[in-house]
Description:
Order of helices and strands: HEEHHHHHHHHHHH
Number of strands: 2
Structural class: mainly alpha
Number of helices: 12
Radius of gyration: 30 Å
Helix content: 55-70%
Amino acid sequence: MTDNEKKPLPLTPAAKKQRIDSLAASSAGVSDAGHVSRGEGVSLWMSAWRRLRRDWVFLFGAAIVVAFVVLAIIAPFIAPHDPAVRVLIDQVHRQSNPVPGPQPGFPLGADDIGRDLLSRLMVGARQTLLVGVLATLGGLAGGMVLGTLAGAFGGWVDAVVMRIVDVLLSIPSLLMAFTIAAMFRSPSQWTVILAIAIVQVPVFARLLRGSMLAQRHSDHVLAARALGVRKGPIVFRHMLPNAMGPVIVQATLVLATAIIDAAALSFLGLGNPDDRAPEWGQMLGNAQTYFDSHPHLAVYPALCIIVVALGFTLVGESLRESLDPKSRR
């Protein structure tokens, strides 16, 4: 063996330490041992917010949602007229035209019994928001109960719950809501809320169950089991909070669907029969008689429903894309 083929002599401990220190000092990505110069990590929600605040689709949808919520809160205080008072009833009786048109103080005119259309649209936002939010919360609560039972226990409990969910999902949502609302003797706003909430339960249940099953084999759950933590705290402190992200995102999408379904039931006459408290779907139903001659009575509430549903849909889709790595743009 020649001298060139001889193996290099091993470095002394002091030489090794000096070599490591020189490599660490020459590294551009590390400022000192144990600290990366790129900064600390951020949570999933903070990372999603950094992307959302640069997403014009989310900002546009959020602007619609915020404007809708603010209007629903302050509408009774800023409405030009009382939505239940027949301010222009004298014009309805005197003229052959049964629907007063736009005029000073009434930019959108009035309905067929002389009530200010603009005021009814503004106040109707509160009723529409109330129905949509309460129906979504009701469906979320029921879905959380079923989804937690199926995802936490598994086995025959999961099988029974999922078969019930499959049966509910096999029925078209609007048809089932119509059937539930028609079962009550006297329709009201609460029958609409209950019918839509029941329709949304299987959606949340299936989504939460899948998210809970993914959490069952995660590292923090396995560590808690190894430490002897009981099943109840594991489910409610570890699995359920970490499984709620997709459910919250789905709630924004379901809220848009709930508003549309509530309008459909009110349009079919299954909503609140008292039109002194206006609601957009109810206004659509009342406008059927004059749709050929005065289509604006139906166009204005329909546009309100479409715009608000679009706002919640844009927000929900943007949230889902920002939180889901598979669909992240």
